[in-house]
Fold:
Amino acid sequence: MYDEWVVVAQDCELAWKATLEEACPVLVELRPVLRENPPSDWGIRSQFFRLDSSGAHIDNNLPRLLVHPLTLAAAEHVTCTPNPRRLKTWLGLRYDRPAIPQQYVKLADSLIKKVKAKRTRKIAAEARDILATFETTPMGVSYEIIAVLPSGSPEESRLEILDWISQVALEIPPELGIATRIDARPDTQISLEFIERSFALDASSLSWPVNSPDPTGKFRP
Structure:
């Protein structure tokens, strides 16, 4: 069904598999490349990931394909991803994609609608992602919003995006939550600690069903 594919196996896995005997069954993971209706942002935890500025992207909902390494030898090599580390970051964080806790869903939904508004889509496209944290204190619900920018973004772009997300926060009803921190920083200044406790303001990343406020099963996060 698809003409283009991208190899998403880790370098170390490819190197290790190359040393194995032919009799040992090894497979390489591929993802189909799409070009229609590309996402507007690059994404960190998003359902979609843009491979380059031409519109080529991956949809995480599509089935992944495992093939014999000889399949790669038979294929035509078209290009390399401009920034393979960004792809590796996205692949890793897709598995670290916590659902927004039920008590913050209304707030997150309101933020998402403002962030995804069509009138500001051009500004939003300059950010890799918009991340938020949520907290309940004796004073009520508070949140932080951080726009993650590609390294090397000009200061004018940072200030423009900072002004935009500040306006987003001002439009949120205070009864839903109060912003305690609003910032726009390059990806070189985003800490691992913040990544681990933040949520992507992406319409595909909300929460567990309303009737089930927590994940079910033996293990709970």
The chain has seven helices and nine strands.
